[in-house]
């Protein structure tokens, strides 16, 4: 029993290494949502903090209108794990109405972020303004990772194998 306790302690002391990258946990508007008015802000929230470098814009977001042209004068900012773009009023001098509204149709939100672990994630999603969805979103791409297990995981696996082998040999000698 003492050996089992030692093995358990050894296993608990092996460092745990998470090999996950930032993933999207929420969007506003939601993916494939149909909205009746253009939101004043468009945001994408991730599962971990985004990297911010004061003099560089490494996290970007663009919004393409139904005709494919990019919305102009978007102001973006990062708040923890959230990338936010403020959507400008088309013409602040005009009252809201048909001549001062964004066109109905499918809008595509594209973003590129760098998470706190340094990995880049690029993806897009769509929402509709006054119209049903017509397109399927693209799948995410991850620029990081080379398919090789990180060193801490390899060390943990090797430690488990050695500890298990020693325990098995000692149990057989009894």
Automatic annotation (TrEMBL):
| Gene Ontology molecular function | copper ion binding
Primary subcellular site in the record, as a coarse category: other
What does the UniProt entry say about where the protein is found? Cell envelope
User: What transmembrane ranges does the database entry give?
Assistant: 149-169
The protein's matches in SUPFAM superfamilies, at most eight in alphabetical order, are given as: E set domains
What's a GO biological-process term for it?
response to copper ion
Q: What InterPro entries does the record tag this protein with? A: CopC/D, CopC_dom, Cu-Rt/internalin_Ig-like, Ig_E-set
Key word Transmembrane present: yes
Gene3D superfamilies recorded for this chain? 2.60.40.1220
Q: Kindly state which keywords UniProt assigns to this record, in alphabetical order.
A: Copper, Membrane, Metal-binding, Signal, Transmembrane, Transmembrane helix
- What is one term from the GO cellular component aspect held by the record? plasma membrane
Tell me where in this chain the CopC domain is found: 21-128
What is the name attached to this protein's record? Unannotated protein
Q: Which organism is it from?
A: freshwater metagenome
């Amino acid at each position: 029993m003492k050996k089992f306790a030692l093995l358990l302690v050894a296993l608990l002391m092996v460092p745990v290494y998470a090999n996950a990258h930032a993933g999207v946990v929420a969007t506003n508007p939601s993916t494939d949502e149909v909205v009746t008015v253009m939101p004043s802000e468009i945001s994408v929230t991730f599962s971990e903090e985004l990297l911010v470098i004061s003099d560089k814009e490494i996290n970007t977001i663009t919004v393409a209108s139904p005709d494919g042209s990019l919305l102009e004068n978007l102001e973006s900012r990062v708040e923890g794990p959230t990338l936010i773009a403020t959507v400008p009023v088309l013409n602040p001098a005009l009252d809201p109405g048909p001549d001062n509204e964004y066109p109905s149709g499918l809008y595509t939100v594209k973003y590129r972020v760098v998470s706190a672990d340094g990995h880049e994630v690029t993806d897009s999603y769509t929402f509709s303004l006054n119209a049903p969805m017509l397109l399927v979103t693209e799948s995410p791409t991850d620029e990081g990772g080379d398919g090789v297990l990180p060193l801490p995981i390899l060390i943990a696996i090797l430690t488990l194998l050695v500890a298990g082998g020693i325990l098995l040999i000692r149990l057989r000698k009894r």
